[in-house]
Design a protein that fits this description.
This protein is an alpha/beta fold and about 220 residues long. The protein is built from 3 helices and 11 strands. The strands form 2 sheets. Strands 1, 2, 6, 7, 8, 9, 10 and 11 form an 8-stranded mixed sheet that branches. The protein is globular.
Amino acid sequence: MVNLLDRGLTAYQDADIRQRSIHAGVADGTEPDTFLVFESNATYTAGRHTRPGDITDPDLPIVDTDRAGSITWHGPGQLIVYPIVKLTEPVDLHAYIRAVEGSVLDTLRDHCGLDVVRIDGRAGVWLRNADRKISAIGLKISRAATLHGISLNVNTDFTSAFSGIVPCGINDAGVTSLAQEGISITLDELVEPLTAALRHRLAPLLARGAGADTSTEKLTASSIR
């Protein structure tokens, strides 16, 4: 696991360069499956499905990305985890999306006691009444290896975060955070339960011989660095 939280805020572009370097090795089979963990500086990123109407402030600086989904915000108080892993071929994209979403559901239900759900047709993790989203999921698979991943709002300041955009292109729902839902927890405290849930959920999907042991019992922090 590559955990950059102890370095403070990471420039999103720097994290993206790091991600792509790791991905090249994972795709080639020369590097082990890796979780990249960081807290970004304030950055707006536009995915492949961003529509012009999703950006309400035309003066915002936008970073175009190759992940799925629309525009979103990354910044202080948000935990970002990118699982960069080699998947068994032929790749089951639906199973991978469900595994990543499931890891967030497991963490928020079991570790935070939060009543969260999936919503058909809408990626990410939502509060049960479906009017606010707490975690966005944006993914890409190239050469059977994964990029991008999870952003989880922990103690995000919504007086500035997400302003000037329609988050994820969804205009009939809002966004929330663990702090707004009355849960006091730090980003650091969430890293282990979330990455443990990812290891468990992803184990059946990982390619053998790609740098990680595919057995659930052995897929631990020592095999996902």
